[in-house]
Amino acid sequence: KIRRDYPCEGHCALAFWHEDKAHEGCFAIRPMENSLAKTFELAAVLRLPEDKFASWATFQFRTLMSIAHKTVEWMFNRPGIERLRVLDQNFYVILQIQSFGRGFPLIPSAESDAVVTIDAGAQLGYPHWKRFESDRFRMPEYIKCFLAIMGLEVETYDHLDSRKLVPYQCVLRRSDWETAKPRFLEVFRLAKTAYRRCNGGTVAPGIQQAELARPIPDAELGQEDLRRRPEKRPIPWVIRKTFLDVREDRTETGGRPDRRARTTKF
Question: Does residue 166 have a pLDDT over 80?
């Protein structure tokens, strides 16, 4: 798992682990301060299978660290790395939606499920429209569903650089978006017309490319995780001299009276 601008802006962190084995670690990379050249500092923290090693292993560790240092230097300066960074900066495109305060945006549908029908969509084969159905609006799900109805299988993402985006943004591969964009925008104009016909007025959802990603702050993600966890009932403790008794719920024990069980000494 890799994350940019963490723990500080301009830094990068990489964490790795193995679900079944004790192999885990992290790398932290940051630019060197007051350096004339573009140099970086890399710190690695690795979990070792043992906390003590024989003295004869010292030489092997020194050799291993030397090989690792040369490998990292090669990775940062290997041929084609500058072109790879340029491709990385433009590999994804961010889409965002706005102005759908009068209900979820619409998607094409069959006539039996339609909530609105527009004559303008007959020429393209999409005269019937219905609301996008979900417990909560999420842009990646909406775009993926819309394109699938059009016969286009495209992967959409709600994370960028290991950070979760706000619900009204999503990420696509730029190559996928450039392929789907002309056809999608043509059909989405019908979705806007259907939205106005369904709700009245002149306001309709709009989709455009976003210049910047808007990740959800880590503090809000932490609160969201806490809300998802089931609440645990506190265990009531009754202290009686040197004994600790757990108060049992009478509904679970069939109305058993609250008394401490008899203690027998062996």
Answer: yes
